[in-house]
Amino acid sequence: MTLRERIQQEIHERGPIPFSQYMEMCLYDPDLGYYSRDVERFGKAGDFYTSSDVHAVFGRLLARQFEEIWRVLGSPGQIEILELGPGRGLFARDLLDWSEKKFPGFFRALHYSLLEKSTALQRRLQANLERHFIAGKTSLSPEGLKHHISRGPYGMAEAMPLANLPAATEKDVTSVVPSGDGPGIFSRERALAREIPVIIFANEFFDALPVEVLSPRGELRIGIKDGRFVETWAPASSDEMEFLDRYSVQPEDGERVEVPLLAQRYMAKMGTALTQGIIIVVDYGYTREETLAGRHRGTLMAFRQHSVSASPYEAPGDQDITAHVNFTALTAAAEQDGMQVQPLLTQSQFLMGIGEQNQFADAFEDCRLLQETAKVALQLKHLVTPAGMGEAFHVLVCSKGIDPAKVVGLSGLSFSKCRI
C-alpha cells in the first residue's frame, strides 16, 4: 500500500480529515512518511539544506555559546543538551567534536541526548556519532518522539483539539506532546535527572509540526473525489478562533492562515518541565506584527529537490511540508510558566554575536590553503548575510532558573541591543 492509498483509506473510513492529520501522515507515518524512510533528505543530494549542511562552523559557534551557558550556570559537573529532531546528527557531531577539542571542561560535563522519532534517522545518528555513542557521551532518547503525536487507529483526529473537537481538555493537550502531565514531561526523554541543567536545542523543528489551515470558509479538511484529494471546509474550533485573535489575524477573502496549536502547546509543556536551563529555537518565521502588516499570510510550503513544490497533495511522503513559525505564539507559550524570553534575533545577529570576539576563527582553523579560506568565507557568508540564511532564520532564547542578567550577557544576545 502506498502512502496515498493509506491516506485515502483513512478518509474513506472517517470522512474528510483535518489538514494537520494529512500533514502528520505525510511526514511521520511510521513506514511511509517523508522522515521515516531511509532516503536522503538533506544537503545537495536531498531536498533542502540546514545550517549544519553549509559548514561545521554552525555547530562550532553553538559549542562556544553552550560552553558559555555552562559557565553562566556555574560550571556544573553535569549538563545535558537535548536536541529535538537532530536529523543525521551533523550538528551534534560538529558540536561534540569542537567541544572536545576546545572546551574540555565543558565536554567532560556534557551528555548529548537525541530526540528522534524516525528509525531510519536513528540509524544515521548512530553511524555518524558512533565514537560518541561508544564513549557514552551521546544517547538516543528511549521515547523518541512517539508521544509527539498520538495514534488511535490513526489517532490524530481522536486526540487532537486541532481536529475541531467540541472542547479541548488537558488530556487532549498532553496527547500531542512528549510524555505525561505537568512536570513529568520530558522525564523519559532526558538521559539525566530532571534537576541537572539542560540546554534544549531545536533547529528547524517547529516548522515541521502539523498545523491547521483556516480561511474565511473555516478549517481546511482533505477529502476525496474521483480518486483525488480535494479541499473541503468545516467550522473552525473555538481554540483556533482564539488563536487567530491573540496571535495572528482573521484571514480575508482569498487568504489562508496557519494555526500552529501543536507547536504552541509543545513549547508550553517544555516550559513547565524545565527546572533550570535554556531553550534555543532556530527557525524561519514571523511575528504577529508582521502578519498585521500584511506579510507572512499563508506560509505553508512543500519542498522537493531544493524547489518549492506546486502542491502539498502531489507527492505525499516524497516531499517536505512546512509552515513558518509564529514566534509571537511561541513566545507567549514559553512565558506561561515563568520562563524569561529574550527579544527575537535573526540568525545573523546571533552568530555574529558569538563569532565577533575571535573574528570567526572557529570557521577558518582547518584552512591551510588560500582557496580553502575563500570557500569557507563564502559558506560563512551564506549563514550570516541577508542574501543567505542570516535574515530568513530567527533565534528565540528562553531561560528558567538562571539569573536573567547573566542570560542577557550571553555573547549570542549581544546584538539584540541593536534591534529597534
Distance between the termini: 54 Å
Based on Cα principal axes, name the global outline: globular
Tally of extended strands? 17
Q: What is the CATH top level name?
A: Alpha Beta
Our Rg estimate from Cα atoms comes to: 21 Å
Strand pairing plus helix content: what structural class? alpha/beta
The number of distinct helices, counting runs of at least 4 residues, comes to 18
> What is the CATH-assigned architecture?
3-Layer(aba) Sandwich
Give the averaged pLDDT, no decimals.
Answer: 84
3D structure, described in words:
By secondary structure, the chain is of the alpha/beta class. The chain has one domain: Rossmann fold. It is 37% helix and 19% strand. Strands 2, 3, 4, 5, 10, 14, 15, 16 and 17 form a nine-stranded mixed β-sheet that branches. Strands 1, 6, 7, 8 and 9 form a five-stranded antiparallel β-sheet that branches. It has a three-stranded antiparallel β-sheet with strand order 12-11-13. Helix 4 (57-72) packs across helix 5 and helix 12 runs parallel beside helix 14 (327-335).
SSE arrangement:
Blueprint: H1 3-14, E1 17-18, H2 19-28, H3 51-54, H4 57-72, E2 79-84, H5 90-102, H6 104-109, E3 110-115, H7 119-128, H8 130-134, E4 138-140, H9 156-159, H10 170-174, E5 198-203, E6 212-215, E7 218-225, E8 228-234, H11 238-247, E9 257-259, H12 261-273, E10 277-286, H13 288-292, E11 301-304, E12 307-308, E13 320-322, E14 325-326, H14 327-335, E15 340-341, E16 345-346, H15 347-355, H16 361-364, H17 370-384, E17 393-400, H18 404-408
Parallel strand pairs: 2-3, 2-5, 3-4, 5-10, 10-14
Antiparallel strand pairs: 1-7, 6-7, 6-9, 7-8, 10-17, 11-12, 11-13, 15-17, 16-17
Helix pairs in contact: 4-5, 12-14
